[in-house]
Write a structure and sequence with these properties.
The chain has two domains: 209 residues, Response regulator (Rossmann fold); 153 residues, Response regulator (Rossmann fold). Helix content is 42%, strand content 17%. It is built from 14 helices and twelve strands. Helix 11 links the parallel strand 9 and strand 10. The longest helix is centred in the first third of the chain and has 17 residues.
């Protein structure tokens, strides 16, 4: 299938004056210890990154797909009376995923199912499109035979899937989206709301974490998602702009897109090429944890245990690498379980005819070796699995 070129996103807010002031002032906080390519700690760069990370706490830098300001999850609540009303409806919901099997998708579905159960809404189907638009169109058509009142979904391709989503909405299904919306859709008119992490902010966070580890200098390769996919484009933009604007001694020397569906394999091939063409490469940034797994495989095969890897999403394999203090130096984590809960609540409010925000986003969570176990609890609402906890090295 021929892909449409990446569309230009609307303007994303720059760091607030407070953030900029803190960064430029060189305010210091406790550092995990970092070095540049020469092995010497550049404390000024470490302090700059730490100050920026601290100033970003609780902030959302992203805007929505149509330029909407982000609303907080705290605004999405049901009263006891509203909860009772929804529970009495006997409503049905379908969950239509872009692809499954990774930790992010599993946590999203877990959050949705948990909250739908509390709301008394029956989940009649959960589908996995394997990142194939034609499969997702078929999935939408199939679940509509069960007459769901609500569909919660993440479009694989905003153009190729748009007509299927529109047909579902015209048939009466309320649409709540994760991360991406179909082309031409307007919140409050064609769909209820979109819920996302602060993906631009996650890109910014991962840039600061990588800069801290590099001491603010080094040669970097970038592996991005080569698709018309709103949130992965935001991460890429956030990472590149932060590096280019704030760390002039960090040079992006290789920039390669991958389209999947074998994201780990594609990223491994891209990383192999980068390491071959740039033997002095210091670091690689990958757009999320599954491509990062491919980067780790390439680094290990090349004997590049000194390579520094940054990414987004706290998947188990990258979490284990963080716990071991091997290769992965930091990532910006989403909060997919909480996103799923919020999506279910938005669906319930829409069934009651209540107004809902167009775009809801949760702040980025910076994760490094020091806080990886605590971060797991925040992200997944469960204790770290033994494979992760037992991997942690002080």
């Amino acid at each position: 299938m021929k892909r449409r070129p990446l569309r230009r996103l609307g303007a994303v807010p720059l760091l607030t004056a407070t953030v900029v002031a803190l960064v430029l002032s060189g305010c210091s906080s406790a550092s995990s210890g970092s070095s540049n390519g020469g092995g010497d700690v550049n404390q000024a760069a470490v302090d700059k990154a730490d100050a920026a990370l601290k100033a970003l706490e609780g902030q959302v830098l992203s805007t929505g797909p149509n330029g909407e300001a982000a609303s907080s999850v705290d605004e999405v609540k049901l009263s006891d009376a509203q909860l009772a009303q929804v529970q009495a409806m006997g409503a049905k919901a379908a969950i239509v995923m872009h692809y499954g099997g990774n930790d992010w998708s599993t946590a999203q579905v877990d959050g949705l199912q948990s909250e739908f159960k509390r709301l008394g809404i029956q989940v009649v189907a959960t589908t996995d499109a394997d990142f194939k638009p034609e499969k997702q169109v078929s999935d939408i058509e199939t679940v509509m035979t069960q007459n769901p009142n609500v569909i919660v979904s993440i479009p694989t391709d905003p153009v190729a899937t748009a007509s299927a989503y529109r047909a579902a909405a015209q048939a009466g299904a309320k649409l709540v989206f994760m991360d991406n919306v179909p082309d031409g859709f307007k919140a409050g008119q064609d769909y209820v709301s979109m819920v996302s992490a602060d993906n631009y902010g996650n890109g910014v966070v991962s840039a600061h974490l990588l800069a801290r580890s590099l001491g603010g200098s080094g040669k970097v390769g970038v592996i991005y998602h080569n698709a018309d996919f709103f949130v992965t484009k935001q991460r890429y933009d956030g990472f590149k702009k932060t590096v280019e604007d704030q760390y002039p001694d960090m040079q992006i020397v290789a920039d390669q897109g991958i389209a999947g569906p074998d994201f780990a394999g594609d990223a491994q091939a891209a990383a192999n090429a980068m390491l071959s063409q740039h033997p002095d490469l210091d670091a690689i940034w990958a757009v999320w944890d599954v491509p990062a797994e491919g980067v780790l495989a390439a680094a290990r095969a090349a004997g590049r245990t000194d390579l520094k890897v940054a990414t987004q999403d706290l998947g188990l394999n990258v979490a284990i690498a963080l716990a071991k203090n091997e290769l992965v130096v930091g990532l910006g984590a989403q909060r997919p379980f909480d996103q799923g809960v919020t999506e279910a609540r938005l669906a319930a409010l829409s069934l009651l005819g209540q107004p809902t925000p167009a775009y809801v986003a949760l702040p980025a969570l910076p994760v490094d070796h020091k806080n990886v176990l605590d971060a797991w609890k925040q992200v997944y609402h469960s204790d770290p699995p033994s494979t992760l906890a037992d991997s942690y090295k002080d």
